[in-house]
Amino acid sequence: MRDARYQQIADDLRARIERGEYARGSRLPTEKELMELYDASRNTIRDAVRLCMNLGLVQPQAGRGTFVTEEINPLVITLSRGPSVGGDTARYLSEGRPAHRDARSSLPRVEVREAGVAPELGLDASATVVSRHQERYLDSRPWSLQTTFYPMNLVTRGATRLLGPDNIEPGAVSYLSEALGIEETGWRDRVIVRVPDPAEAAFFQLADDGRVAIMEIRRTAFEASGAPIRLTVTTCPADRNELLFSTGQVPAGS
């Protein structure tokens, strides 16, 4: 029976993965190669691979093939109520390093865009914003995407480094304080869980069937007057990131 055959093949693939014959992160043999290996029909192989997908053993990657899933040690992203030291990129890098992991971010891609892309900033439709987009990696693997939007009036008031295609040290939050005397006094986080779009699926090397959700964290930061001064949008796959919320007196590291 075909059902028994595809189950046998799936069991054998699982055994090969568990003993390391097909290493974590490696590409599974092609459909044609598996048909020859098991002397089975295309439909039987597809059923066996689909079963392995349902078991979380393998996942397809658009245009690349089917890959053995990697064992992932999630990054815990702390959404705290205290001040953000340096900014969200600096925070991301500092959270990656204590676990002896290689965290890095690409240089920012800077654009001037219409204010409609950042409605949380409450700007007039004729206004513009500066966007600073970065790709972020952990242990050389794509981990998150981050875009921060700033009102253009911050630039005209003197914060011209926001337009520069380089990292702002020790972070944009500190820079705005030094350049303009703007103190970030609080923020609001909105977390959205959704399926990845095609560009996100390609960047994060996810299956295009939506089995791994995307977490979109939209952080609107405010100054003392209550005016929003930045919107940071972070997108990250749920298979390699966790969100941690703490309130009140919570011991560090717990």
Q: Would you spell out the secondary-structure blueprint of this structure?
A:
Layout: H1 2-18, H2 31-38, H3 42-54, E1 58-61, E2 65-68, E3 75-78, H4 88-96, E4 103-105, E5 109-114, E6 128-138, E7 141-151, H5 152-156, H6 172-180, E8 184-194, H7 198-204, E9 214-223, E10 228-237, E11 241-244
Describe this structure as you would to a colleague:
The chain is α+β, with helices and mostly antiparallel strands and 254 residues long. The chain has two domains: 2-68, Arc Repressor Mutant, subunit A, CATH 1.10.10; 75-244, Chorismate lyase, CATH 3.40.1410.10. 27% of the residues lie in helices and 31% in strands. It has seven helices and eleven strands. Strands 4, 5, 6, 7, 8, 9 and 10 form a seven-stranded antiparallel β-sheet that branches. Strands 1-2 form a two-stranded antiparallel ribbon. A hairpin with a 2-residue loop joins strand 6 and strand 7 (141-151). It is elongated.
Short structural description:
By secondary structure, this protein is an alpha+beta fold.
Helix content: 25-40%
Identify the overall geometry: elongated
| CATH architecture descriptor name of the largest domain | 3-Layer(aba) Sandwich
- The CATH homology group name of the largest domain: Chorismate lyase-like
CATH class of the largest domain: Alpha Beta
Low-confidence stretches: none
Q: Which secondary-structure class do the elements indicate?
A: alpha+beta
What pattern of helices and strands is seen along the backbone?
Answer: HHHEEEHEEEEHHEHEEE
Give the N-to-C terminal Cα separation. 52 Å
Query: Could you tell me the strand content as a percent range?
Result: 25-35%
How many helix segments? 7
Main sheet characteristics: 7 strands, antiparallel
Instruction: Compute the number of structural domains.
Output: 2
Estimated radius of gyration? 23 Å
Mean residue pLDDT = 86
SS elements, strand count: 11
CATH structural fold name of the largest domain: Chorismate lyase
